[in-house]
Amino acid sequence: MTTQTFTLPDVGEGLTEAEIVTWKVAPGDTVAINDVICEIETAKSLVELPSPHAGTVGEILVAEGVTVEVGSPIITFVTDAAGAAPATAPAAPAADEGSGSVLVGYGSGGGATSRRRKPAERPVRSSVGVIAKPPIRKLARDLGVELTEVTPTGADGEVTRDDVVKHAEQASVFRNIQTPEWGDVREETVPAPASAPVGLARGIRPDDRTESIPVKGVRKATSSAMVQSAYSAPHVTVWKEVDATRTMELVKRLKASPDFADIRVSPLLIMARAVIWAARRTPMVNAAWVDTADGAEISVRHYVNLGIAAATPRGLLVPNIKDAQDLGMKDLARALNRLTLTAREGKTTPADQQGGTITITNIGVFGMDAGTPIINPGEAGIIAMGTIAQKPWVVDGEVRPRWVTTVAGSFDHRVVDGDGMSRFVADVASILEEPALLVD
């Protein structure tokens, strides 16, 4: 028998530390290679760590809620010489010969082994006959979807994730990009009465009138990035009010189209296409200021990694769609669906958030008309889309009700001049006013 110590790995490029959020195992548990042992929170992502060993959990070395540096020991395993479970424990799936005890996804090794399906992951049939896995049921609750009303498409009548999301999208076509509601995060941080001090486990030290919340994880990363951006790039913001009625009409037609039957469609899709189109006409908004040993240079990217700022229960995340300029309308819609759903589930990886070239932030979901967004570090421009609401608008000399929004663009004045950003915002506005301009 051998005791193996597992240290915190670098699950992203340049990761230096992470917080242990939840342990999925306890001392004495039998695990197989690739079984999830814990969830960690890096600067931007919630990541599941799979076991690099097959055996029995020995000792958990780091408590939940504690932040440790990469390379720090976090757990031990008791294994036999081959890395399999001890003879006294239930047999676990054996690793491929030569794979050793390499954490899947980190370092080299042989073929991957199959992961055991835990009972909690099996489909569950409710009293009313709905078949759905627990994560799908949670997603339905988050989105306010009644599972009994969802049409299942999975094997044996199982409700899938896409079934739930599609059903949720049957809301009003004039609703902005859909964001599920979640409980007030203060429910997790404000201590209950003395009989149940909920907040103490999170490092909060309350008194009668105040509380202290540690700055770590997503909040720490966001604050650092925003300070860096605000105090290194001279920000300027311009904005324009837009008649987006034809965009809303197009969204309604796409929702009704059989070609988009399995795809969520919202005004964000048209906005994304507009930003990509406009960036091609004004490339400097898709550029970046780069400090070099000889001074500085401007890096102009001839591709668009389109960032979408997502407000999630874990905080602000900005994943991006790589090479968005190569995607047609349907593929871009699918990419947006994957991006937003992954962010809401807290599964966005560090790689998904690196390499962005320009960002959209949709403040309309919060009922805001306009704002002055801060540019992401490494970028030169960010576009904010306000709420789309009916307002009186002059059309051909007559006042009519139209669907109106505001497009605001902040830019790094070292890279882009006012005339360039003004043209860019005007181009985005022109697409929202007449999406047919995208057909070229």
Structure description:
- Helix content is 22%, strand content 25%.
- The protein contains 8 helices and 20 strands.
- It has 440 residues and is of the alpha+beta class.
- About 18% of the residues have low confidence.
Question: What is the structure about, briefly put?
Answer:
With 440 residues, the protein is α+β, with helices and mostly antiparallel strands.
Give the key terms:
OB fold (Dihydrolipoamide Acetyltransferase, E2P), Dihydrolipoamide Transferase, eight-stranded mixed sheet, alpha+beta, 440 residues, four-stranded antiparallel sheet, 20 strands, globular, Chloramphenicol Acetyltransferase, 25% strand
SSE layout and pairing:
Layout: E1 2-7, E2 17-23, E3 30-31, E4 36-41, E5 46-50, E6 55-60, E7 67-69, E8 73-79, E9 124-125, E10 131-132, H1 134-143, H2 161-168, H3 186-189, H4 217-230, E11 235-243, H5 245-256, H6 267-281, E12 287-292, E13 295-300, E14 306-312, E15 315-317, E16 320-321, H7 329-344, E17 358-362, E18 381-385, E19 389-395, E20 398-412, H8 418-433
Parallel strand pairs: 14-17, 17-18
Antiparallel strand pairs: 1-8, 2-4, 2-7, 3-6, 4-5, 6-8, 9-10, 11-20, 12-13, 14-15, 14-16, 18-20, 19-20
